[in-house]
Amino acid sequence: MERDSTRRWTLGDLSREVGLAPGYLAALFVQEVGVSPHRYLTEHRIRLARHLLATGDLPVTAIGLAEGFGSGQHFARVFRRVTGESPSEHRRSVP
């Protein structure tokens, strides 16, 4: 998932990639990683987006789309839920 984080992964896609049943994969993933595959992917995308916000000048919407979010609004909503701040607030807070 990390190598292709912009892909619209489903649990079925992931289970086919690794050759495990979806339910078993989800349970094993949570056991080993501590979060669901979906949450892991979301948090990974947000980490990448935070880096882009801090180091570049791409528009917020472009960063969200580049990281695999379906729209700028969805990206902003998920970013706030995960980090507690909007993408723009994050960008302004970075020295």
UniProtKB/TrEMBL annotation:
<keyword id="KW-0805">Transcription regulation</keyword>
<dbReference type="InterPro" id="IPR018062">
    <property type="entry name" value="HTH_AraC-typ_CS"/>
</dbReference>
<feature type="domain" description="HTH araC/xylS-type">
    <location>
        <begin position="1"/>
        <end position="93"/>
    </location>
</feature>
<dbReference type="InterPro" id="IPR018060">
    <property type="entry name" value="HTH_AraC"/>
</dbReference>
<dbReference type="Pfam" id="PF12833">
    <property type="entry name" value="HTH_18"/>
</dbReference>
<protein>
    <recommendedName>
        <fullName>HTH araC/xylS-type domain-containing protein</fullName>
    </recommendedName>
</protein>
<dbReference type="InterPro" id="IPR050204">
    <property type="entry name" value="AraC_XylS_family_regulators"/>
</dbReference>
<dbReference type="InterPro" id="IPR020449">
    <property type="entry name" value="Tscrpt_reg_AraC-type_HTH"/>
</dbReference>
<keyword id="KW-0804">Transcription</keyword>
<keyword id="KW-0238">DNA-binding</keyword>
<dbReference type="InterPro" id="IPR009057">
    <property type="entry name" value="Homeodomain-like_sf"/>
</dbReference>
